[in-house]
Amino acid sequence: MLTGSMVALATPMYADGSLDWDSLHNLVEWHIEQGTRALVAVGTTGESATLDVNEHIEVIRRVVDQVAGRVPVIAGTGANSTSEAIELTENAARCGADACLLVTPYYNKPTQEGLYQHYRSIAKGVSIPQILYNVPGRTAVDMRPETVQRLATVGNIVGIKEATGDLERAKVLIDTLPEGFAVYSGDDFTAVELMLMGGHGNISVTANVAPAAVAQMCEAALAGDAVTARAIDQRIQILHKVLFLESNPIPVKWALREMGRVDGGIRLPLTSLSPEHHGTVREALRSAGVL
User: Fold this and answer.
1) From CA 212, how far away is CA 33, in angstroms rounded?
2) Residues involved in catalysis
3) Is 203 marked as binding a ligand?
4) Residue 197 domain-assigned?
5) What is the pLDDT of residues 56-110, one digit of tens each?
6) Is 176 annotated among the ligand-binding residues?
7) What is the structure's pLDDT at 264?
8) CB within 10 Å: which end of the chain, N or C, has fewer?
9) pTM for this entry
10) Distance of CA 47 to CAs 126, 159, 248, 263, 264, Å?
């Protein structure tokens, strides 16, 4: 089972939107050095919605090849078309990814039965381990716990990234899902508490800019050391807040540029961080000790 801090890795770009492979290479090395336990390539923070299929697969391939087994690589392969999700998942498996992360189908608003059939079809079609991803704030569809429970019986569906921030929901999942089925936080604000109640890790936006702190926080929480985990979390809570002043990954990509780690490009329809937030994000980076 994958555990600990798993960064939802930003995809570096130049100002014209082209992919910055050198910065991607450097980010991967930095995360491994800083103690990140797994890399999530081309998830929401990686701008999966605006990378074309070839770019999507190439990012996964390059991350897998560079990591070379040092930590697991989770490939974001979700789509609102089941056939497209199967195609992306097949390609991620061929690239050598360790697992895939599949967001609930967005925009078309399937029923709970539709969600079940969607994920079951992908799992039956591709044998790679698969992690469900529930983020209704972005997709307009909420995968209910009873649907997750049904899917947990499918052999290669191995976990869920629960990004509602609802700790009562997380507790239901932790208490009712089979032993060995992982529940990950997808919400930095509530990640510590989810892990302290029995969750298995955090698929984190904040880890993009504070990888060592998030890794240490996760290790403490998973060891049951609530005092240490909460103390670290308190120190970086300001980052959890400012990295969502505008839609993710707008603030995190600006922050990484401010830190000198990427060029700062982002693809339309997303735009660079509004100038009125620059000072706030810069001060948060300084307060958290990462700038």
Assistant:
1) 9
2) 133, 161
3) yes
4) yes
5) 999 999 999 999 999 999 999 999 999 999 999 999 999 999 999 999 999 999 9
6) no
7) 87
8) N
9) 0.97
10) 23, 22, 9, 15, 13
